[in-house]
Structures are given as C-alpha cells and as structure tokens.
Amino acid sequence: MFNTERFIADCCGALNNDNAHAAVKEIVARAVAEPSQLLKALEEPKLAGIQTLYRSDRLTILNVLWGPCMHLYPHDHRMWAVIGIYGGREDNAFYRRSDSGLIELGAKTLDTKDVIPLGEAVIHSVTNPLEQITAAIHVYGGDFFATPRSEWDPQTLEERPYDIAHAMQVFEESNERLRAAELAVKRLDRSF
Ligand SMILES: [Fe+2]
Asked: How far is the CA of 125 from the centre of ligand 1 (A)?
C-alpha cells in the first residue's frame, strides 16, 4: 500500500546513504511497481500540472502530470533525478551541448512502472505521446525550484535561463486544450 508520508520519509532517509541517487531509485521503483496504489493515494489525475509533495534544500519530490500530447522543451536540472511512471508514457529525448548548439543524443520511452535515473548533467525534453494524462513521480537531489539552470528554445535550440513560469505556462496551455476538447464533446452530445 503506497503511503505518501512514508514515501517522503524513505526518500529523505535515503539521503544518508553513500549513494543516495541509487537508493532513491530503488524506493521509486518499489512505488511505481504498484501503480494502482499510487493512483489511489495521489488521486486519479484530471488535469496537467506539477504538485510538490516535498521540497527542501537537498530533495524535491514532484507529482508530475503531463497533459495529452504535451511537449516540454529541452532543459537541464543540475542535480540528480529519478523519474518513475505510474500511469501512461513519457518519451524522453536526450541532448548534449556542442560548439554548433544542442545535439540530440538519443531517446528513451518510459512506460508505466518504468524508472530511470538521470545524472546531474543530463539535458532532456519530454513528450507525452498519449491522448491521456501521463502521471509520474519525479525526485530531485536538491531544490528543484531554487537552483538556476537552463532551458532551450524548442525551435532555435538557443540556450537561456530556465524559467519555471514558462514551464507552468506549457502545463496551463495543455489544460486549456483539455477543457476545449471536453467542451466540444459536450456540444456534440447536445446536438444529437
Ligand atoms: Fe526534466
């Protein structure tokens, strides 16, 4: 049975481990191994968004809900991370800096129950390829919101300071599309 407070306490405790990153990966893997328990504890997602479950200088735990077909431009974290999927699918594309700009290195699809550890230097973009919300637990080895880092323009791939408000706008635009689609379905229902 997943318990949010227990999960947070376990992740905090893992920071005392010699390899906190690997220890947190095991904790997240155990949690997403039973996705229905997470869905029950964190409530079935209805909208895209980021819910902060825990935040300190050394650790951030987020419940990340990607909207249908939503895409978040390349960005880095500058701290280790663990991503675990408990509903849907995340397509990750990985990049590296080069003299001629950002170069795509490869991609990885994460399905429900998959867990991936990301190193401090990772640059990635995320796409939800599904017509439904994808739900994921993201754990970061630092203060996700207070650490300066970079994002890259999705068209020009130009590097600029990461702006959390910009990221939140992408989530909100996804919700606007969701609401418009629901409205269209309701109108269609009424016309029959
Ligand atoms: Fe990320």
From this structure: 7
> Does 94 score more than 80 pLDDT?
yes
pTM: 0.92
Contacting residues for 51 by C-beta, under 8 A, at least 6 apart: 42, 62, 63, 64, 65
User: What is the distance in A from the centroid of ligand 1 to the CA of 190?
Assistant: 41
CA 130 to chain CA centroid, Å, is 15
> Which residues, including other chains, have CB under 8 Å from residue 186's CB and lie 6 or more apart?
none
Give distance in angstroms: CA of 75 to centre of ligand 1: 6
Lowest mean pLDDT among 43-47, 77-81, 86-90, 143-147: 43-47
57 CA to centre of ligand 1 in angstroms: 18
CA 184 to ligand 1 center in whole angstroms: 32
- Report the separation in Å between the CA atom of 124 and the middle of ligand 1, taken as the mean of its atom positions: 6
Q: Which residue has the tokens 């904790």?
A: 27
Question: What is the dihedral angle through the alpha carbons of 49, 63, 128, 72, rounded to the nearest 10 degrees?
Answer: 60
Cβ contacts of residue 57 below 8 Å, gap of 6+?
142, 143, 146
